[in-house]
Amino acid sequence: MTDTLNLLQNHRTYRQFDESYELSPEELQNILNSARQAPSWMNGQLYSIIVVKDPSIREKLVALSPRNPHIRKSSVFLVFLADLKRTQKVAVQHQADYHVGDSVDPLLVATADCALALENAVVATSALGLGSVVVGGIRNEIDAVAELLHLPDYVFPVAGLSIGKPAVDMEVKPRLPEKAVVHFDTYQDYDYSLIEDYDITMKKFGEKRETKDWTQKFLDVYSAEPTGKIDAFLKKQGLLK
């Protein structure tokens, strides 16, 4: 139990991998088995995983997400999908109505199922002495990624996962103060100084790839006008009306 807790509490993200390292079939299978054993709503398992080994496909993914060259340089790249196509097949088979898209709830459930499977894969990767990085950037050019991976309707790419042998050691990144994240019994407001303190903490941590304060980074993200690209994709896939 102590080993498991240490693994979870010392998680770190790796973006640089030994390109000569080949993931064994046993290692990959252990990661996939662990991902598939994740909890899911009603045992629905509303996700799928694409194992991307083909170098040409991975090169194209890097071209679509140029800030993530590790997609090509890692040992394997997994794409985790929220998948409501499987249950649509059930509805077709039984000639039943299928109201996915009438509410956002099915998409939220499938995304949660997908995220749980993804986290299991991350933990399994660490347990094998390997490293990984979650790649949300695959959603930036979501239509092109969907076409490249031949995604059918009712399927949405949530995130990718680069896996390999780390080439550079990384420090454990500080997290937000507990009082800003953990609440007991009810949601409780907290002083904004906790967020300001985290800016200072991250500045001292000095991660080279972070060029902005934590607060500024998310100010920039959420003050910008939405492009509508994701919404349009979800509607096209039948996941949102």
Strand content: 5-15%
Mean pLDDT value: 97
Number of E-state strands: 4
The helicity comes to 40-55%
InterPro entries: Flavin_OxRdtase_Frp, Nitroreductase, Nitroreductase-like
Protein name: Nitroreductase domain-containing protein
Keywords: Flavoprotein, FMN, NADP, Oxidoreductase
GO molecular function: oxidoreductase activity
Give a quick precis of the structure.
By secondary structure, the chain is α+β, with helices and mostly antiparallel strands.
How would you describe this protein?
This protein has 241 residues and is α+β, with helices and mostly antiparallel strands. The chain has a single domain, classed as NADH Oxidase, CATH 3.40.109.10. Helix content is 43%, strand content 12%. It is built from ten helices and four strands, in the order H-H-E-H-H-E-H-H-E-H-E-H-H-H. The chain has helices spanning 2-9, 25-36, 55-64, 70-73, 85-93, 105-127, 142-148, 193-205, 214-223, 229-236; strands at residues 47-52, 76-83, 131-135, 155-164. It has a four-stranded antiparallel beta sheet, sandwiched between helices. It is globular. The termini are far apart. The mean pLDDT is 97. This is Nitroreductase domain-containing protein. InterPro entries: Flavin_OxRdtase_Frp, Nitroreductase, Nitroreductase-like. Residues 9-165 form the Nitroreductase domain. Keywords: Flavoprotein, FMN, NADP, Oxidoreductase. Belongs to the flavin oxidoreductase frp family.
